[in-house]
Design brief:
Chain B: Belongs to the HUS1 family. Chain B: It is found in: Nucleus. Chain B: Its main location: nucleus. Chain B: Keywords: Nucleus. Chain B: It comes from Capitella teleta (Polychaete worm). The complex is a heterodimer. Chain A has helices spanning 7-10, 23-31, 85-92, 160-167, 224-227, 230-236; strands spanning 16-20, 38-44, 47-54, 58-65, 71-74, 79-84, 106-111, 118-124, 127-133, 151-158, 175-180, 187-193, 196-202, 209-214, 218-223, 239-245, 250-257, 263-270. Chain A is mainly β. Chain A has 2 domains: 3-133, Proliferating Cell Nuclear Antigen, CATH 3.70.10; 148-281, Box (Proliferating Cell Nuclear Antigen), CATH 3.70.10. In chain A, the strands form 3 sheets. Chain A has a 9-stranded antiparallel sheet with strand order 6-2-3-4-18-17-16-10-14. In chain A, strands 5-1-7-8-9 form a 5-stranded antiparallel sheet, with helices on one face. Chain A has a 4-stranded antiparallel sheet with strand order 13-12-11-15. Chain B folds into 2 domains: 2-146, Box (Proliferating Cell Nuclear Antigen); 156-259, Box (Proliferating Cell Nuclear Antigen). In chain B, 19% of the residues lie in helices and 40% in strands. A 9-stranded antiparallel sheet of chain B has the order 10-6-2-3-4-18-17-16-11. In chain B, helix 1 (10-26) packs antiparallel against helix 3. The model of chain B has no long low-confidence stretch (mean pLDDT 91). Classes of the chains: A mainly beta, B alpha+beta. At the A-B interface, helix 3 and strand 9 of A face helix 4 and strand 14 of B. Strand 9 of chain A pairs antiparallel with strand 14 (199-205) of chain B, so a sheet runs across the interface.
Chain lengths: 282, 278
């Protein structure tokens, strides 16, 4: 591959250097968190973490572990910058978003350090594209302080389970209520819209449910507008873990299989809409 | 002033439809000039309205089996009409399996190009579908606005690279910027790039073919000519043109003009986009 010929001395000045044979892998994962124009990228020796936030209430993190890349070199402990995700995705898909069999886009990504642009070099069938994207001062990201020790309820299921439920969400309802309980109805999604309330219940014995660890009945409400972006990730995923902690914060982790069989994770955190005062809906 | 023509061959009907469709994707309204041997679709925008130019030439005898024309006068045996090519396409769309298509200039409530489409049936009688496409007759004193543009001396002449790849690239770039810069040299290097506040993106094509249709100038083959053009107009052309997927010639006049040229035996299309300065 022509991209890999002269890299040895060339990458000397870079703090971050990554090479990927199929740029679509990265594009697909990033697409899952693409609900805002800008993202903050944290690079470390583990790989890239791409964070997108909205309304100070929801945060999405996409993890591109270093093993996903054919080559991943980082010379500082951590490199952080903000970038326009929309433009980055357009660049990654410059040769077309649909995959033509036999044609893959190879990617080389470099960054020279604070204040310098992120450069991408893409190649497909001998045609080269180079992109230079301005990096911006990173914003402070939210810390949801979501500790696994505080997790009250946790369910891991195959994604089919939730895909149907989420794709048919009643959007006239502002909120989605997630109920998790050690007793019936175990796991229930509810919306309260103009045309009435809809409850989708999932039995815990279902083949699709892989792990069910609920300790306490908990019903939390979340703004649908905040959860809606996670549907992109859900649709690509094969497995999903839904967790809530003692404050009602929601964590959803999606497992996404890439085209070449690797596994990536995308997680969403969302804060609850408000405290449920009484049991009027349960 | 009279015009009537008849196309019988289904291949010709479809090819003619492709020509008109291509024009309709580029422009809402254009001039149709009819002479005894050629049909021309012409657009010559003034610089203040964008400066786009289209010159499409269709040899009449490759398409029409009957062709009768009585022009404005004996010494000016031509007709100039203002037409909406999209309306013509809609009329021609019903003709994709027709036995024949007749095109004639008629006077109903207003001047019209009437397309009579004869469709096959199982019975002995055939069905006739008639479309009237309203047109404006352009008076003779305005004709000299539609003269064939003179080709300038081009700095660089190359074939366009693979349209399929280029179409994707231009489509992506279209989302990022309104203007695209083509830069190319006579040794087969061709770059397409956009540049905005947040990103600079450039796609490089190497070893792009070279038509031998004109003497190469004494210009340094390594020297690039640049043309910054309206990206939407380029995208329209790449997506909308149905005449050729391989041999599109791209001519550049440095910081002045990008000119695209498709040549077939019976049809030729020139599309020129002026450079937009930043």
């Amino acid at each position: 591959m022509s991209l890999s010929t002269q890299e040895s001395d060339e990458n000397a000045q870079y703090v971050l250097y990554a090479r990927l044979d199929n740029a679509k892998t990265m594009a697909n994962i990033l697409k899952a968190v693409h609900f805002k124009d800008t993202a903050i990228i944290f690079a470390s020796e583990n790989g890239l973490k791409v964070t997108v936030e909205d309304c100070k209430c929801v945060q999405a993190n996409a993890f591109l572990q270093s093993s996903l890349f054919q080559e991943f070199v980082i010379k500082e402990e951590q490199v952080t910058f903000k970038i326009n995700l929309t433009v980055l995705l357009e660049c990654l898909n410059i040769f077309g978003a649909s995959s033509i069999p036999g044609a893959t886009t190879a990617l080389k990504m470099c960054h020279e350090g604070y204040g310098t642009p992120l450069t991408l070099l893409l190649e497909e069938n001998g045609v080269l594209t180079d992109c230079s994207l301005k990096t911006l001062e990173p914003d402070e990201t939210l810390d949801f302080n979501f500790l696994s020790t505080n997790v009250v309820n946790k369910i891991i299921t195959k994604s089919e389970c939730l895909k149907a439920a989420f794709s048919e969400l009643d959007l006239s309802s502002d909120i989605l209520e997630i109920l998790m309980s050690p007793d019936e109805p175990y796991f229930r999604l509810s919306t309260f819209g103009n045309a009435g309330s809809i409850h989708s219940e999932f039995p815990k014995e279902s083949d699709l449910v892989e792990s069910f660890q609920c300790n306490k009945t908990q019903a939390n409400r979340y703004k649908i507008s905040l959860l809606k972006p996670s549907v992109k990730a859900l649709m690509q995923s094969t497995r999903v873990s839904v967790r809530t902690d003692n404050r009602g914060f929601l964590s959803m982790q999606y497992m996404i299989k890439t085209e070449d069989g690797q596994v990536c994770f995308v997680e969403f955190f969302c804060c609850p809409d408000e405290e449920l005062e009484n049991d009027e809906y349960s | 002033m009279r015009f009537r023509g008849k196309i019988i061959d289904i291949g010709c009907i479809q090819h003619f439809t492709r020509v008109v469709t291509t024009i309709s994707k580029l422009v809402k309204s254009c001039t149709l000039r009819i002479t005894t041997d050629t049909l021309y679709f012409i657009l010559s925008e003034r610089m203040v309205t964008g400066g786009t130019g289209i010159w499409c030439q269709v040899s009449q005898n490759h398409f029409f089996d009957e062709f009768n024309l009585d022009g404005v006068s004996a010494e000016a045996n031509e007709i100039y009409l203002e037409v909406n090519p999209d309306l013509m396409v809609r009329a021609l769309r019903t003709a994709q399996n027709a036995k024949s298509v007749k095109i004639k200039l008629t006077k109903k409530h207003m001047p019209c190009l009437t397309l009579e489409v004869e469709l096959p049936t199982l019975a002995a009688h055939s069905r006739l579908v008639t479309h009237d496409v309203p047109v404006n007759v352009i008076p003779r004193r305005l004709w000299d606005e539609f003269e064939e543009p003179e080709l300038p001396d081009f700095d660089v002449t190359l074939f366009m690279p693979c349209v399929k790849i280029l179409r994707n690239v231009v489509d992506r770039m279209k989302n990022l910027s309104n203007f695209l810069t083509i830069s190319a040299n006579n040794s087969g290097e061709m770059n397409f790039g956009v540049s905005t506040d947040i990103a600079t993106i450039k796609t490089h094509f190497k070893d792009v073919g070279h038509p031998n249709w004109r003497e190469t100038s004494d210009r340094d083959p390594k020297e690039f000519a640049d043309a910054r053009i309206d990206i939407r107009k380029l995208a329209q052309f790449l997506v909308g043109q149905q005449l050729s997927s391989v041999k599109i010639i791209c001519n550049l006049v440095h910081e002045h003009l990008a000119h695209f040229f498709i040549v077939h035996d019976d049809v030729s299309l020139q599309y020129s986009l002026p450079v937009v300065n930043s």
